[in-house]
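Q: What changes when 5-O-phosphono-beta-D-ribofuranosylamine is included in the input?
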Amino acid sequence: MTKLGILLSGRGSNFQAIADQVAAGNVPAEIAIVIANRPDALGLESARERGLKAILLPSKGLDRESYDRQLIAALREVGVEWVVLAGYMRLLSAEFIRAFPQRILNIHPSLLPAFPGLDAQHQAFDYGVKVSGCTVHFVDEHLDHGPIVMQAAVTVANDDTPESLSERILVEEHRIYSESLRRLLTEEWRIEGRRVLFSPSIG
Ligand code: GRF
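A: The predicted holo structure follows.
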């Protein structure tokens, strides 16, 4: 079974959605470890309630390179093969990216390349877009930038607020993150340039 390592900084609802799909047998993987970089990350507690190995590795005050070396060591110790960022609020170092080539995923609450960075749903709302959504992508050294695995669109209604839009985007996030993992772990795929191509015969 493929071993996943989850990194999170907060609420952890994407982690929970993935854990549900793993438990239901829809994602053929095992969550080997959940690591939070902030002591107040709620996701840590819910991981422990599920009986998963969950640790706090505080990042405060540490430079990116030395923190990421700790992360790599903790992930390697339990044999993690895929790294899943679930609301992990730090950029990863080049060394970290090289440690897990083509095996790090992130989810972002906009249709990238629109609105990278913080508060993407608010950015999209304020810009006045009629369609926003979410993106699952491979992680490279740049913020919200690597090759795209899946996207889902969400239309913006007249009476939406940033909060109501965020809620509907979150429902799609929970759906496509697990679905992306399921496809990547069960189908043939390759990356050509920026394009993630699933094999047409089975994808
Ligand atoms: C989500 O909106 C995700 O797209 C972004 O951070 C948020 C994390 O939410 N990267 P949660 O911690 O998974 O609930």
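Observations recorded in class: The longest helix spans residues 162-186.
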